[in-house]
Batch of 4 targets.
Target 1
Amino acid sequence: MRRYLVERGVKAEETLSFDTVIIGSGIAGLYAALNLDKRLSCAILTKEGVDISNSWLAQGGIAAAVSPGDKPQFHFEDTITAGAGLCNEKAVRVLVDEGPQDIASLVKLNVPFDLDEDGDLQTGREGGHRRNRIVHAHGDATGRETVKTLAAIASARENITFIQNVFLIDILTDDNRASGVLVYQDGYRIIAARNIIMCTGGIGQLYIHSTNPSIATGDGLAAAMRAGVPLANMEFIQFHPTGLYCKEPESRSFLISEAVRGEGGILINDNGERFMLGQHPMNELAPRDIVARGIMREMVRSGKDHVFLDITKESKEFLSLRFPTIYGECLKRGIDISETPIPVCPVQHYLMGGIVTDLNGMTKITGLYACGEAAYTGVHGANRLASNSMLECLVFGRRAAQHISGQAVSGSISLPAFPEPEKTEECEIDVLRLKKLIRETMSRDGWVIRRKADMEAGLKEINRLKESLETCTLKSKSLMETLNMATVGVQILTAALGRRESVGAHYRED
Ligand SMILES: Cc1cc2nc3c(=O)[nH]c(=O)nc-3n(C[C@H](O)[C@H](O)[C@H](O)COP(=O)(O)OP(=O)(O)OC[C@H]3O[C@@H](n4cnc5c(N)ncnc54)[C@H](O)[C@@H]3O)c2cc1C
């Protein structure tokens, strides 16, 4: 595998240095930054603006045992059940025990969570949760409200510098120690750092239908691999059962949150029949993989490319208040969800696997951490319990920051040398065609229901593409993204072929 994406002879135009560099301004990156010792200088780098991330789009909310009828132990049990026996129990304990304290911290930071009449946090319920424990803000705009609040505080902190519209190319290492990052922003730049936290989010852009935005091309995962850090559990991709169905695929599928089913929404087919009844004791609120497969089978049976989510039992007033984003977006497309069932189909949504870390977010390279969706802490096992991901961003983002803050700092930050890559050659590349090919292959061969022969064919295709790109001079961000996507695609299909049994979100029909 190629160590660096740049070619020989490229020069850095500027070198900056910080105690800590955080890649990503989603909830993991922002919350980690706010938990760093204020005496440490910190840069938050983000590929586009703060409003382009999975965090910004999160609707349902954040799960934590904060209501009187709930306990971390119940949350633990639900998380383990959803994870189908593959969770790291120690990591889940940390998540559920420390989660309520991080929600309390968000309240103190003035994240505008919705409150009940007594002024307590309102808690909703989603698939796989046996208690109401999802806190939410502005109804279904939890991610946006949380990011807005945290980003405003981070921007005002003297020790934090925001650098937007910058592309992380590679992580620089020196003798198994992270020494900085190589980035592109109007030229190549090196940013030297004592510690780096990778909070680069998901991989949805590898699929045709995904809820993830344009930035989700797996750059952080591929960069970590090139630096020698292993990825784990890459076969476990969560497909959300209810993306808003569109005839023509969109660059990002609009999500109809699980919370709609939590409020009593039912799944029906063309004939108005509830097909999830009897498939699982929790019917429509079964874990996401079970509902996604139930929908796929119903689509095959009916020959249709979607089913319907019916919440018409609720009034316009209730729905527009509880789900303002969903209500508004559907209305824009001519669907009044208080009157008409919503057409839905499964879409790629979340990556359970990622960069292997310990319980402090630390990877096997000293000074290199990973948190949030890009990381593999083991909390999700084979399937993520709804609304546990933002909690993971908070708990492990804070722990990484605390781990960094607890280290003694001495001496100046050493400047890494510009990497010496191997020689590459000029190639004619149609980047849009290659990205499309990756998406089509992954959506055909690495989707909700998998078969050995398909995965083998897909792996061959993506490997061929990856190998051809490895030797080319990559002159644009888009080309680098394409190689990153192919690198991650190979990991997903290899892991999926390697796991012969069906478990959690990984379902093999053979
Ligand atoms: C539509 C939708 C709804 C969701 N609803 C919920 C929910 O209700 N509850 C819940 O718990 N979870 C939900 N999730 C999942 C959750 O939002 C994410 O898992 C979580 O927010 C990920 O946060 P993050 O900080 O790890 O990554 P992100 O928020 O995705 O941020 C990634 C950051 O990395 C940066 N980045 C990536 N590559 C590069 C690069 N090469 N160079 C520089 N920067 C880079 C991006 O610019 C971005 O700032 C939802 C996800 C989606 C898509």
Target 2
Amino acid sequence: MTTRDDARRQISRREVLRGSAAIVAAGSVGAGLAAIAGEPEAPTSAPPLPWKWVKLDPLEAGRRAYHYYKVKGGCGSASYLSLLSLLKEKGGHPWTTMPDMLMVHAAAGFGGHGTLCGALAGASVIINMVTYGEKRDEYLQNNAIVDRLFWWYAEQDFPSKRFDDISPMPKQIRVKAMSPLCHTSVSKWSLAAGVKDLHDQAKIERCAKVAGDVIYIVTTALNEFFEGKWVAPVWRPSLAIEHCVGCHGPGTPTEKPLRWNQQGHMECLMCHDDHTSLGRSSP
Ligand code: HEC
Ligand code: HEC
């Protein structure tokens, strides 16, 4: 029997053992065969974006994110890998070419720096990959979906009760994130929950559920988007900052020569005082 036959026999046994995992591994098995037969592996490059979205079950995706938070290195991996693993299983190539640990550094607001919540970061990678170049109305949808996702996040009282059935700590206190920043989102919750240690089990539960909540909503939105049902909601500033944006909004062209406009849709009062409340239009 030739080496090649041996390899084939091994593979078919492995396929039986692994079930659906064999489908995921199909690419690397093929590469192994070529190497055994002495054929040089043809260099392939990833196809250009966008890659095809496959309709996914939002609850299954969210539960994976909750679980991966604990076993795959935190929120960045949790959100990215929950979607990627499902896309690999249900969509196959080219998703199978993506490395699993691409977003692990996004945990705790990227390397522990407390900037963007990693759950948002991991999800944004996939959002861009499937919606890149999609233009509806006047907006590029990869940007619109990411922007509205961050806006949605800031408004949420996290964590929801959606994953309480698989959590050892159901019914946790819910606190509004206020911004897409890890530092704000986690600190506001920790203060309200009386959690003083970042390694506290309650904080880990909370963030695992947040990753699940983010992925649940992203999966729902992308399913609807590709069924032609999702239209990006128009961003509206909260009441407290409506007037700020009137003068300083990113899209207030008349103010541009005065350099009043700023880049962003975050809650201004988190970082600025309201200089107009002192009865002055300028500081
Ligand atoms: C009626 C228009 C108006 C509104 C409303 C307004 N601003 Fe301003 N803001 C100004 C003007 C004018 C300046 C001065 C610009 C300059 O000096 O070039 C300014 C300057 C600023 C600056 C720069 C301060 C500095 O140190 O240079 C910040 C920050 C700012 N505004 C934040 C806000 C925030 C936050 C709000 C809402 C809570 C707000 N503004 C509402 C008109 C406005
Ligand atoms: C995460 C904190 C943060 C948030 C949220 C934030 N800002 Fe700022 N903003 C800053 C900092 C820091 C500066 C730089 C201030 C300085 O150097 O004096 C700044 C600068 C500005 C300036 C002066 C910019 C320029 O180019 O002259 C304006 C105007 C301003 N912010 C308005 C806003 C408005 C309006 C919002 C809400 C839509 C907002 N900011 C949200 C932190 C923030």
Target 3
Amino acid sequence: MMNKVGEIEFKKIRRISPSQFYSMKNCRYKSLLAEAMNKKPLLPISPNAYYGTVLHKLLELISKGEIINENDFNKTFEEQIGLMEQKLLEQGFDFFVPLQKKVKDFMMKKILLKEHLHNFSGQSQSLTRVNYIAEKWYESKDKTIGGKIDLVIEEGNKIEIFDFKTGAITQDYLDDDGEVYSDVKEEYKDQLKLYAYIYYENTGKFPTKLSLVDLAKQKFAVPFSQKECYTVYLESKNLLNTVNSCIDTGIFKANPTESNCKFCLYRPACSFYLNQIEICSTFKDVSGFLVNTLKFQNGNISAYIESGRKRLTVSNLPEEMFDELNESHTKKLYFFNLKRETKDGLYTATKATMIYE
Ligand code: SF4
């Protein structure tokens, strides 16, 4: 089915969550589009990301002590997978269902997650002087920064903030001598420092340790100082003001680079990005005027579009799109989530392909 973005009504953003800060820093416009769309994505994300949301929910329930044994775990896991699949069906993303068949290492991740069960439930029963605070909302006094912290463990003067990640926590960087080294992703460092600051604003105390934990229970410390946490807080606050001031002035800026836009789910609504794909062919989205549509014997459809001086072919489109595409000749169309073939100008539709006009 052909999709339309419609009129975009920008709204001011009241608050930034620590997990959103880095993304807003990279492209302010993305945050404004997300707010305007009431955070409803215009494109599907990968099945791994949907599964990641389920895994994170389970981790949250384990750390809260709401899942304490294997039976609870299995029952809740099935329930949460069912809820997510239902949501995917409602959004028309039936091609990601069942998730078990679409996600790589589905069972392995489930097994790794189950291992966390023994971690938190065991500790919370044996150490009564330790305060476990899971999934609690914290916000700055001016309410500009707020979010739920996965877990805080308070033990006397020792306070540790944990954030759970279901994907990779580190990435490779190059040092000044050109040597590769691995370090915690910058976005996670900023996120944890913001958690530390909002925890401080709520309790009057800074944590003594910031940690990230992955599915395999590997723990990564994030070094920090109180000054750094305050600096990131000020930076976020200023960024929020700058982003909101765009709505008053009507002057918007975006940063359409491959790394920023690749996972942006608001690409169909971003005029900066849509201009970019017309001049740059490194993206997996294309646009142009539809000049012809052909149906092959196997039922597959190919659409031929003119993009500037180039002729592009999008093949493997579903049969049920034929009539609608035929009625759209001469219209400008935008195809998202394609596979780029080795031959120049040739693209193949995937299950996640969506067309906007
Ligand atoms: S598509 Fe790219 S430039 Fe546009 S809002 Fe998203 S990240 Fe920003």
Target 4
Amino acid sequence: MDKTRILLVEDNLSLGAMLGMELKRRGHAVEIAKSGAEAMTKLGAAEYDAVVTDLKLGDLDGLEVLKFAKSKHPRIEVLVMTGHGSIDTAVAAMRAGAFDYLTKPVEPEELNIVLDKAIEHSRLVHEVERLREEVKDKYSFDGIVFSGTPMRKVLDLVSKVAATEATVLIMGESGTGKELIARALHEKSPRRNGAFVAINCGALPEGLLESELFGHVRGAFTGAERNKRGLFEEANGGTLFLDEISETTPGLQVKLLRALQEGEIRRVGDNHPFKVSGRLLAATNKDLTKLVAEGKFREDLYYRLKVFPIELPALRERPEDILPLAEHFLRKAKKKLGGAAVKFSPAAADALRRYRWPGNVRELEHVIERVLIMASGASIAPGDLPPEMLPSAEAAKNDPRETLDDAEKRHILQAIEDCGGNQVAAAKRLGVARNTLWRKLKAYGIPAKKK
Ligand SMILES: Nc1ncnc2c1ncn2[C@@H]1O[C@H](COP(=O)(O)OP(=O)(O)OP(=O)(O)O)[C@@H](O)[C@H]1O
Ligand SMILES: [Mg+2]
């Protein structure tokens, strides 16, 4: 390990020399400043791990040295030496961030013990910071909102597989976040500094898709006036994301398979294969096993792609994510569009949670934008939601899945809504004691408002 660099600030020259010698004997790199001004110059010019300073210096207060050291190097450890009986200044020093104080006359052995502790403390702080960063990098996903276990499991998988070179097949209904996950896989991978190249295989006719992916040489077809690099090449050292992979034709599937197996491609109109090094991710909202069974998707390509399958659950399969996502989109939409609404009323939140979300997270995002525009008050009411989402009394009555508890909850929330959020009034209207209402609300996770 490197020597610990210590700045000793002591205007009593013989004491400074004695302590300095002692610290050097212990293997530290020591510099001595004979005044506050000299200490500050040294602190401004070099890095130190620790400062040991007298509190009473000829020119300056040691507290000033302490504060200056901390402002220059927030993680520096400072020990102060104080004269007998000046406990007040010692307390002030501790408040200003000193690690500890020593009372004069300072015993070299005592100084060593306290200094060792300070250095150990500093080492641990560094270590904790480093680990925090590491954990943050590994397990934090910027912009991916979730609260329940299903997505937590998906993200755990993403963390694990990102570091590998494996081809990943992301499956999930439309709007579940497949592209978001593909980007996260890239961002968490060692290729994060390379390009992330995405293409929707369903958006282009076969010929065009082929030349997009593999590139072409001049004269390969009418209009090919010059050589063109394909996306496989663009993604060298990075990640190539093939969205809606089920939409590829059998002819293109053969070429993709070859690219995957050989790690080589040919530009359209060129016979020379060359190596490509992008990592491949693919996504689909179709059931590929079914397409394979029907002969519409090559089985060998399917197995090549799903080396690592990641299945994104539909939003209705993770209802605990709905409200956090809705709140996230509300904040996002407010930044973009302004608007008054800041929260969802309990009944509106309930309607969001109960809706089936066939368009998943994408639909939720759009609904929230629309709602923000429609809502007049600070609180979003069920009436602000699109009508198809409303568990209207009729619809709910006709819903054979509704349990008695659900019906009661819906009725209670509606009553509170009708009473403008006044729970006391709602209890009266429902003909139950307030405490009964509060007990029930508590079971729904809604705080009591006792006014
Ligand atoms: N967990 C999440 N947290 C925050 N935003 C999300 C989350 N999941 C999805 N989104 C957002 O929802 C929208 C749809 O996500 P994305 O485009 O990744 O879905 P998809 O599965 O690729 O959809 P499609 O099948 O329609 O292409 C995007 O705006 C995305 O940022
Ligand atoms: Mg998509």
